Amino acid sequence: MKFTKQQWQWIFYDWANSGYGILVVTAVLPVYFKAVASQAGVSSTISTALWGYANSFGTLVISVLAPLLGALADYPHSKRRWLNIFTWIGIILTVGLAIVPVAQWQLLLIVYIGSIIGYSGGNLFYDSFLTDVADNYQMDRVSSTGYGMGYLGGVLSFIIFLVAELTDGFGGLLNSYEIARFSFLLAALWWVIFAWPLLRDGRQHYSVEKVQNPLVDSCKRIRKTLHHINKYHQLTWFLIAYFFYIDGVDTIFTMATAIGKDLGIETTMLMLVLLIVQLIAFPFSILYGWLANKISARRTIMMGIIIYFGICLYALRLHTLTDFWILAVLVGTSQGGLQALSRSYFGRLVPKNASSEFFGFYNILGKFSAILGPLIVGVVTQWTGKSTIGAASLSVLFAIGLVIFAVSSSKKSCD
């Protein structure tokens, strides 16, 4: 399948914010935060829980606002404007992470929360652009390629960080804290450069009619959608299933590094593991798109959920570096593909002219699940004193999501 210029611009937005995803959310900031918190006298278990709480709280604001923001973006020429607003919030506050003094770990968490709002809000409008750049037949391949290229972009930005890490800050020019700050600046710059084509040229092909007061009209449209939600039976049940299983996917992504540190794995080794996971995720994300065309999106999504259920159970036996490697490789095989196909599966269900409004509901359920998951891990970790048990507790969310999706999904409609 040959992609158009607009599809490549859309795909490279995933490449662009992948630097934030791996350097800030997953690899560096969790370790950096635990280091500065430990220096301030905060225990390892408490700092892991606080990191989970921060991720939960950081998604709350955008979760509450997502349907309204999505509805506002459905008016003519609005989607790109909102994409720009939240993308720049994320970029500016990512730079802010590099400016916060080392001693102020509380402020570091606050700035991170703000950057998550920008990152998550940008992804809402980016996701809804899928209906503008691809038709129903193309969606699985375009969405999967976006995730795959995102992982490849993450690998390249991560390698630049690793060069700084393994050369002791480019030959001693940077200390360990400065290397972390360099990574935050790198993530922001990466985001600006590769998101710019879509931020500048993104074209919205579907929209609702222009009105005098978009805010009031958006509220009315949301109320009308909720009132007639029974008209969207399949879409509603998919969102409920998605709420549960994507919770586990996002939580494992955000908590993996902190759990690795609790197992006593050295920072450099954690960085190498994450790099390999990104490399594995690149081809497997694209493979998921190919499988969706061969055996159906429905079956491929179910396969991904089952793999993640097994990952959670495997977390119970995490004791050694080898165990962590096995778990990481399993995550790499399914993380991007499951997310990509969920996005395209939903994209085929929504009314095209109101895609941002409906992706707002998709976003709110995804983000509210991202509040629940880290909260569960944080509470179970504090209660048991073992972050591996906290990770294993996520298996119940995958089980619930699988059952609901398997029972309610319609092969005829969406495969």
TrEMBL record:
<feature type="transmembrane region" description="Helical">
    <location>
        <begin position="109"/>
        <end position="126"/>
    </location>
</feature>
<feature type="transmembrane region" description="Helical">
    <location>
        <begin position="268"/>
        <end position="288"/>
    </location>
</feature>
<dbReference type="InterPro" id="IPR020846">
    <property type="entry name" value="MFS_dom"/>
</dbReference>
<feature type="domain" description="Major facilitator superfamily (MFS) profile">
    <location>
        <begin position="234"/>
        <end position="415"/>
    </location>
</feature>
<dbReference type="GO" id="GO:0022857">
    <property type="term" value="F:transmembrane transporter activity"/>
</dbReference>
<keyword id="KW-0812">Transmembrane</keyword>
<keyword id="KW-1133">Transmembrane helix</keyword>
<dbReference type="Pfam" id="PF11700">
    <property type="entry name" value="ATG22"/>
</dbReference>
<feature type="transmembrane region" description="Helical">
    <location>
        <begin position="147"/>
        <end position="167"/>
    </location>
</feature>
<feature type="transmembrane region" description="Helical">
    <location>
        <begin position="300"/>
        <end position="318"/>
    </location>
</feature>
<feature type="transmembrane region" description="Helical">
    <location>
        <begin position="235"/>
        <end position="256"/>
    </location>
</feature>
<feature type="transmembrane region" description="Helical">
    <location>
        <begin position="12"/>
        <end position="33"/>
    </location>
</feature>
<protein>
    <submittedName>
        <fullName>MFS transporter</fullName>
    </submittedName>
</protein>
<keyword id="KW-0472">Membrane</keyword>
<keyword id="KW-0813">Transport</keyword>
<dbReference type="InterPro" id="IPR036259">
    <property type="entry name" value="MFS_trans_sf"/>
</dbReference>
<dbReference type="GO" id="GO:0005886">
    <property type="term" value="C:plasma membrane"/>
</dbReference>
<feature type="transmembrane region" description="Helical">
    <location>
        <begin position="85"/>
        <end position="103"/>
    </location>
</feature>
<feature type="transmembrane region" description="Helical">
    <location>
        <begin position="389"/>
        <end position="407"/>
    </location>
</feature>
<feature type="transmembrane region" description="Helical">
    <location>
        <begin position="179"/>
        <end position="199"/>
    </location>
</feature>
<feature type="transmembrane region" description="Helical">
    <location>
        <begin position="358"/>
        <end position="383"/>
    </location>
</feature>
<feature type="transmembrane region" description="Helical">
    <location>
        <begin position="53"/>
        <end position="73"/>
    </location>
</feature>
<dbReference type="InterPro" id="IPR024671">
    <property type="entry name" value="Atg22-like"/>
</dbReference>
<dbReference type="InterPro" id="IPR050495">
    <property type="entry name" value="ATG22/LtaA_families"/>
</dbReference>
